[in-house]
């Protein structure tokens, strides 16, 4: 099963590299992306049946990934929210857990762990 994945990331290079890596290694099907908090919230809520996984950066061109996470707290049980950030500190991880995030990955050294997560989730 392809994991329908929505990405909230304002850095085009990081986003494109991430999509390429996940398509190649983790049977991910990108269904869209946002560069701002508002775009991410609107898309994820209006298309609630069209995604399985959202990968969210915390620091965005406008707003914060935390706002996107907050807006998606009422998602269906099968939908996963993960954070991919350069700031995966213990405090950030705790705040994300409070918002119901399924996992937090550090951009600098946990991309492999994100790929593994996607592979495991795509197998159901």
From TrEMBL:
The keyword Phosphoprotein applies. Transmembrane segments: none annotated. The modification 4-aspartylphosphate is found at residue 57. InterPro entries: Bact_response_regulator (IPR050595), CheY-like_superfamily (IPR011006), Sig_transdc_resp-reg_receiver (IPR001789). Keywords: Phosphoprotein. Residues 4-122 form the Response regulatory domain. Gene3D superfamilies: 3.40.50.2300. Pfam families: Response_reg. SMART domains: REC (SM00448). It comes from the Bacteria. GO terms for biological process: phosphorelay signal transduction system. This is Chemotaxis protein CheY. It comes from Acidovorax temperans.
């Amino acid at each position: 099963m392809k994991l329908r994945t929505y990405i909230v990331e304002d850095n085009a290079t990081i986003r494109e590299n991430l999509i390429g890596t996940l398509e190649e290694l983790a049977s991910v099907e990108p269904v869209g992306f946002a560069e701002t908090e508002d775009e991410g919230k609107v898309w994820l809520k209006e298309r609630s049946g069209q995604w399985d996984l959202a990968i969210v950066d915390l620091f965005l061109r406008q707003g914060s990934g935390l706002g996107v996470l907050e807006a998606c707290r009422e998602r269906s049980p099968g939908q996963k929210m993960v954070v991919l950030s350069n700031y995966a500190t213990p405090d950030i991880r705790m705040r994300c857990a409070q918002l119901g995030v399924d996992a937090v990955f550090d951009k600098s050294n946990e991309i492999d762990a994100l790929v593994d997560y996607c592979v495991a989730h795509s197998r159901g």
